[in-house]
Amino acid sequence: MAQLPPGIRFITSFSRDQWYRAFIFSLTFFLYASFHLSRKPISIVKGELHKHCAASHEVEVNSYKEYAAQIQPVKKASNVSQCGWEPFDKNNYKQLLGALDYSFLCAYAVGMYLSGIIGERLPIRYYLTVGMLASGLFTAMFGLGYFYNIHNLWFYIMAQIANGLVQTTGWPSVVTCIGNWFGKGRRGLIMGIWNSHTSVGNILGSLIAAYWVSTCWGLSFVMPGVIIAVMGIVCFLFLIEHPKDVSCSCTPSSSSKTFLNGACRFRVQMPTLNAKETSKPQDPEMQHLLIDSENCNVSLNSSTVVTGEGKHGTSAISFLGALRIPGVIEFSFCLLFAKLVSYTFLFWLPLYITNVEHLDAKRAGDLSTLFDVGGIFGGILAGLISDRLEKRASTCGMMLLLAAPTLYMFSAVSKMGLEATVVMLLISGALVNGPYALITTAVSADLGTHKSLKGNARALSTVTAIIDGTGSVGAALGPLLAGLISPSGWNNVFYMLMVADACALLVSLKIL
């Protein structure tokens, strides 16, 4: 018998369940990366919506624009102003650009509280597909303002509000799905790697938007809108919400007595173990991610086996019930301040680089991706450390403690030259995004499957939405405050970010 080729041996070395889990890991990774890809263009295009020009020449420029519009009506008036795109070409441009950020993030924060509650009552695949198609529509809608020569501020604000609302369908859906497929063993590391989709999406969004920003900024929005809509169709065609939907066969853990849990026979809501086995602490390393899913194994707290299929046998948790889970409130407020810092960088970093390094919008957008590169390593490092220490809160606290002085160094060193800026972008990205990534993934999943829930897996979507929704309040405040404070100097913006990091550390002291 001929020996199998190496490639075939590699494929057959993994079980069917492992391939399914790897597929869901990759699919949800790219689905949510497309969400962040569609959010990034606004920060890149800010440098094009307002270009720096001498105040003394504003009258001549406006007069010339009116004259050119009269004698050459065929040409677009949009590219005539040397100060940018009306209405963002005035001296109050920072406030107007801040209003765009604030409208999106406020809508996102409000919608997130509702999204988790709605999402756990609807099929994830349909809910996520509709949200991604709508996100593509409203992202592209902003860019259409360029092609149709729209200069009404409310058009852009309404596009941002609508986009903020529909984008809330993404996070609770993908976290619930990934929580269904993966257990608690090495959750910090696995979700740290998985959560790098945030930074990957930001990087791709920056590069795509920067490619067109100086020539046709409308395409900086239209192309990401098309991409997330296409990914929505991929979601509809391929997303599998739960292992039982494909008759996942589970490998029992050697340390526990298990029952089948899935489409094969019956659904275990509150399984049973004898007192001797229950008293033994389980090593999280024994809960294999690629072999045993916690959705297919027994839990340790109860004794009832309920027959039935799907979610219908388990009631959804209430909003107040989710708030009573230990740690939800503390981590929610910690994320509020951590996300304030992260989203201020997300929306204002390219403009800051443009002002400090005197680069054009394209080069500033490209350079800003280094912050997200640092964020990838920060999220993975936070997950790895938290798994080793088995202390999520302490890991967050340690990184927050280091982040505040690093931000001060960034504000001082970035004025010394491009090389110093590159180094500080990488370090700041790791320390700022590390706690943010850990709380929104591993911590949310841990709390959504807390022992106090007695096996009710449907709480995960609501818990995720509460934590990320509260964090999104900070995400809305950060860019708004940056827009209001930056006219008095960028140093004051960094002081505000350092105070926010200190507040995140203070509110988490109870759970450290």
Overview of the molecule:
With 512 residues, the protein is mainly α. The chain is built from 19 helices and two strands. It has helices spanning 6-12, 16-39, 41-49, 58-71, 93-119, 124-147, 153-166, 170-181, 187-194, 197-213, 219-238, 275-278, 319-323, 328-357, 361-389, 392-413, 418-448, 459-485, 490-507, and strands at 267-270, 304-306. It has a two-stranded antiparallel ribbon with strand order 1-2. The chain is globular, with a radius of gyration of 24 Å. The N and C termini lie far apart (60 Å). The model is unreliable at 54-80 and 250-313 (pLDDT under 50).
Could you list some keywords that capture this structure?
single chain; 512 residues; mainly alpha; 19 helices; 1% strand; globular
Unreliably modeled segments: 54-80, 250-313
Overall strand count: 2
Put simply, the count of helices is 19
Class by alpha and beta content: mainly alpha
Strand line-up of the largest beta sheet: 1-2
